[in-house]
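Spend some time on this chain, tokens included, and walk me through the fold:

. . .
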Amino acid sequence: MVSAKLLGVTFCSNLKFDEHVKNILTICSQRCYLLKCLKGQGLPAKQLNVVFCAIVMSRILFALPAWGGFLSYDLVAKFDAFSKKALRWGYSSELRRLSVLLHEADAQLFG
């Protein structure tokens, strides 16, 4: 399998985005460590959510209409599980399901 990263999106020769999802979730998990440190330093929940949106959600939403439609159920479930963890840990103020994010991104792009 051959893959290439173009403008931050990893495209594979088999038109699957497993590698791209793995890269995104790895980056987001690393950024959650920063959020853990900020929470430990006493950053209020509202500001923690702002930082979460800025450094994590922006990474997930980047070019979502380009690759989101190619995701299998398992890959969508991985994103949703990450979102549930972020909510449980107090980094996010709401549960953000990938299917809803994709629908909103498509509506904004094509609306």
